[in-house]
């Protein structure tokens, strides 16, 4: 029993480390090769846990081998477009100027239901409103609507505005995130003066955001029974 | 780029580890076969078989521990059982003693063959 317990813990760490090595990707955005690696990992990892006769190294070695190969292959595919096309495939246009390309749909084994579902998930209910719909290599559909169906933008209305970064988290649960603060162009001294003017210290803050203009939002820790 | 270097390092490490394990099994097998042969000689020539058997058993205990990290072959379990019953076979003067000693050498070779990466073991 203990062997299974320890093995499960060790393999959990191994899997987490190997997934970090693969990089940040949402599950739905996995490329075919990454999906294969993910499916294989989940199977391989269970073998030494289920069967204590199998040495754990027999689980760890294939996991790291597969992940390392995937990372190397993805780096190579970044360098060589033809390799990328061979491994990941290429994006396909399924709707152009409101017209569905039935041949591409057939090639991709995409049903009308699949297409309509993907369009609806992007708030498009009328195929004729689509200027371009592309099936990405991850299987997701990107939609570009016709001009008259697109929401009005500031540019359309000829409204000028400043391009400023959105607010970013600079204090998380009483801990200062130095890098974000310096990326925004501020320092600890400035932050402390802002907080001092409110009669607070960094350790009192649950959440604090700041934008490039120095506009801050402060949420202090709730005291027991009442909020400050 | 950092990930690429880490991945290449891991792959190289795994390749070296794999090569090292095959080499370790080859070396271990050579020593095992040598000890088996010495035991056979001692038995047939009326030498100190007990001492040779003790050496064989001592070596096997360490070798078995190392093998258990590298392989999950049934062969290993068979070899372990055989090595452990050799003293009893010798004490009872069983005719199977020499045959069992031979089988240890054969199993050792079989174990190496399953670990050595050639076409038959890969596919």
Kindly name the structural category of chain A.
alpha+beta
Strand order in the sheet with the most strands of chain A: 2-1-3-4
Count of extended strands of chain B: 0
Write down the domain tally of chain B.
1
Which pair has the most extensive contact? Answer: A-B, 17 and 16 residues
Helix content of chain B: over 70%
- Put simply, the count of helices of chain B is 5
What does this 3D model show about the protein?
- The complex is a heterodimer of chains A (228) and B (123).
- The two termini of chain A are 49 Å apart.
- Helices cover 45% and strands 18% of the residues of chain A.
- The mean pLDDT of chain A is 86.
- Chain A folds into 3 domains: 2-86, no CATH class; 92-149, CRO Repressor (2-Layer Sandwich), CATH 3.30.240.20; 168-222, CRO Repressor (2-Layer Sandwich), CATH 3.30.240.
- In chain A, strand 5 and strand 6 form a beta hairpin.
- Chain A has 8 helices and 10 strands.
- The longest helix of chain A is centred in the N-terminal third of the chain and has 23 residues, at 57-79.
- Chain A has 228 residues and is of the alpha+beta class.
- Chain A has a 4-stranded antiparallel beta sheet. Chain A has a 4-stranded antiparallel beta sheet with strand order 6-5-7-8.
- By secondary structure, chain B is an all-alpha fold.
- Chain B has one domain (23-116).
- Chain B has helices spanning 2-44, 49-70, 74-91, 96-115, 119-122.
- In chain B, helix 1 runs antiparallel to helix 2, helix 2 (49-70) packs antiparallel against helix 3 (74-91) and helix 3 packs antiparallel against helix 4.
- Chain B is elongated and about 65 Å long.
Show the helix and strand layout.
The complex is a heterodimer of chains A (228) and B (123).
Chain A: H1 2-22, H2 32-50, H3 57-79, H4 81-88, E1 92-96, E2 99-100, H5 102-107, H6 112-121, E3 130-135, E4 141-145, E5 168-172, E6 175-176, H7 178-183, H8 188-197, E7 205-210, E8 216-220, E9 222-223, E10 226-227
Antiparallel strand pairs in A: 1-2, 1-3, 3-4, 5-6, 5-7, 7-8, 9-10
Helix pairs in contact in A: 1-2, 1-3, 2-3, 3-4
Chain B: H1 2-44, H2 49-70, H3 74-91, H4 96-115, H5 119-122
Helix pairs in contact in B: 1-2, 1-4, 2-3, 3-4
């Amino acid at each position: 029993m203990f062997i299974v317990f320890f093995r499960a813990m060790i393999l959990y760490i191994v899997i987490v480390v190997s997934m970090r090595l693969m990089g940040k990707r949402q599950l739905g955005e996995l490329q075919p090769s990454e999906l294969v690696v993910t499916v294989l990992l989940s199977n391989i990892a269970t073998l030494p846990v289920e069967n204590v006769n199998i040495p754990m190294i027999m689980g760890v070695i294939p996991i790291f081998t597969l992940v390392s190969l995937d990372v190397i292959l993805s780096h190579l595919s970044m360098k060589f477009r033809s390799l990328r096309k061979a491994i990941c495939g290429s994006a396909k246009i399924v709707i152009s100027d409101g017209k569905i390309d039935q041949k591409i749909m057939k090639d991709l084994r995409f049903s009308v239901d699949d297409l309509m579902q993907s369009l609806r998930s992007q708030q498009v209910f009328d195929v004729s409103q689509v200027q371009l719909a592309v099936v990405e290599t991850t299987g997701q559909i990107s939609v570009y609507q016709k001009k008259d169906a697109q929401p009005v933008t500031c540019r359309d209305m000829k409204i000028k505005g400043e391009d400023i970064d959105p607010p970013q988290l600079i204090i998380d649960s009483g801990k200062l995130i130095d890098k974000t603060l310096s990326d925004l162009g501020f320092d600890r001294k400035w932050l402390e003066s802002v907080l001092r003017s409110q009669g607070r210290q960094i350790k009192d803050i649950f959440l604090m955001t700041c934008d490039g203009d120095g506009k801050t939002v402060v949420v202090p820790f709730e005291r027991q029974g009442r909020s400050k | 780029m950092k990930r690429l270097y880490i991945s290449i390092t891991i792959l190289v490490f795994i390749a070296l580890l794999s090569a090292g394990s095959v080499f370790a099994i080859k070396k271990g097998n050579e020593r095992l076969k040598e000890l088996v042969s010495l035991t056979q000689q001692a038995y047939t020539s009326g030498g100190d078989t007990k001492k040779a058997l003790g050496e064989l058993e001592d070596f096997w205990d360490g070798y078995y521990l190392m093998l258990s990290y590298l392989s999950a072959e049934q062969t290993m379990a068979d070899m372990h059982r055989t090595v452990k019953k050799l003293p009893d076979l010798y004490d009872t003067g069983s005719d199977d003693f020499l045959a069992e000693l031979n089988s240890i050498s054969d199993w050792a070779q079989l174990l190496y063959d399953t670990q050595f990466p050639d076409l038959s073991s890969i596919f």
